[in-house]
Specification:
With 359 residues, the protein is an alpha+beta fold. 41% of the residues lie in helices and 19% in strands. The protein folds into two domains: 2-89; 108-346, Bira Bifunctional Protein, Domain 2 (BirA Bifunctional Protein, domain 2, 2-Layer Sandwich). Strands 1, 4, 5, 6, 7, 8, 9 and 10 form an eight-stranded mixed beta sheet that branches. A two-stranded antiparallel ribbon has the order 2-3. Helix 2 (21-32) packs antiparallel against helix 4. The longest helix has 40 residues, at 50-89. Bound molecules: phenylalanine (PHE). Phenylalanine (PHE) binds at residues 178, 180, 219, 258, 261, 291-293, 314-316. The site of phenylalanine has 11 residues, from strand 9 and strand 10.
Length: 359
């Protein structure tokens, strides 16, 4: 019996000394495995007298149970120690900011397009797009610029080399000088009623404080059977009031000329220039903001729409220009210099909502 006690003591000690699951398993095999110490003793039972065998058998079974229980207990201790260690190592510090300082910002142009789109979407306009490389027809002819018309020259157009095998205006390929080209695409493919805005890049060969060779325009086109100048004015005044967040913003429409609208107008909004600082919605000064007019019947005809049945209005404005006015950005050229300090200063965070009227 004392043998068994001594063996038990020895095995229990090695169990307790096992520092991980693998060495514990080795201990188990050396005690209870096929060639283990306890198993070896069990094998000796056969040579004993029935009485000895009974007594020894019971003692060995007890020993086996006790050792098994010890191993199990040790295994649990080791497992929970391992788990604790893992939890400690993989701990997440919930006090850390879930939104680390964003590295990039939303460019003022993207932000402004987004804000303009929200306002026009509320008035039922959807967004249309078209190609930046155009032919003469979409940029000029369909928009009622007759060949040789002086307004063509005023657009400082970037032309590509003439298309091989074609002559005259047919051979011309160009970078669109305005988003009005997309009016043509839309009217050629959609049936009225039409209500679209067209944000996009436009190109003119010009470069100074207020001109860059690439800039953005927001075009608008509405065609139905009854739209008139009053609708045009109401729509644009409402747009400017929401965009500039001035409820009683003054506006006026001055007669102007565009080949593709008749009558044509330019819209001014009220501002103050007191002390050299421009403030929108104050004072008695005026600031030109966009061009607009009723779509010329010739344009409708060129696009396959019957001017005796349909009419409508169009407008176009510079997106950089309204962004500069709204966000106080002084130099147009800086928009496209990709200066990280400028982008950090004038850019917008992804969660920012600079115009609460739009949220
Ligand atoms: N396309 C004109 C421009 O670039 C703007 C405009 C658009 C005017 C639609 C009237 C109607 O200056």
């Amino acid at each position: 019996m004392s043998n068994i006690d001594a063996l038990k003591k020895e095995i229990v000690e090695t169990v307790k000394a096992a520092n991980d699951i693998n060495s514990l398993e080795e201990v188990r095999v050396s005690a209870l495995g096929k060639k283990g110490k306890v198993t070896g003793l069990m094998a000796g039972l056969g040579q004993m007298t029935p009485d000895q065998r009974k007594e020894m058998g019971q003692a060995l079974n007890r020993l086996k149970d006790e050792i098994t229980a010890e191993i199990e207990a040790r295994a649990n201790t080791l497992k929970s120690a391992a788990l604790n260690e893992r939890l400690q190592k993989e701990k997440v510090d919930v006090t850390l900011s879930p939104r680390p300082q964003a590295k990039g910002t939303i460019h003022p142009i993207s932000q402004t397009i987004e804000e303009m789109t929200v306002i026009f979407a509320d008035m039922g306009f959807s967004v249309a797009e078209g190609p930046e490389i155009e032919d003469d027809f979409h940029n000029f002819t369909a928009l009622n610029f007759p060949p040789g018309h002086p307004a063509r020259q005023m657009h400082d157009t970037f032309y590509f080399p003439d298309v091989a095998g074609k002559t005259g205006l047919d051979a011309k390929r160009l970078l669109r000088t305005h988003t009005s080209t997309v009016q043509v695409h839309v009217m050629q493919t959609q049936k009225p009623p039409i209500r679209v805005i067209i944000p996009g890049r436009t190109y003119r060969s010009d470069y100074d404080m207020t001109h860059t060779p690439m800039f953005h325009q927001m075009e608008g086109l509405l065609i139905d059977k009854t739209a008139h100048m009053g609708h045009l004015k109401g729509c644009l005044i409402e747009f400017c009031r929401r965009f500039f967040e001035v409820d009683d913003l003054k506006a006026r429409f001055r007669p102007s000329f565009f080949p593709f609208t008749e009558p044509s107008a330019e819209m001014d909004i009220g501002c103050s220039r007191a002390g050299g600082e421009l403030k929108i919605g104050e004072g008695n000064d005026w600031l030109e903001i966009l061009g607009c007019g009723m779509v010329h019947p010739n344009v409708l005809k060129s696009c396959g729409i019957d001017p005796n049945e349909y009419q409508g209005f169009a407008f176009g404005m510079g997106i950089e220009r309204v962004a500069m006015l709204k966000y106080g950005i002084p130099d147009l050229r800086t928009f496209f210099e990709s200066d990280l300090r400028w982008l950090k200063h004038y850019g917008f965070g992804p969660m920012e909502q600079p115009n609460p009227a739009l949220s």
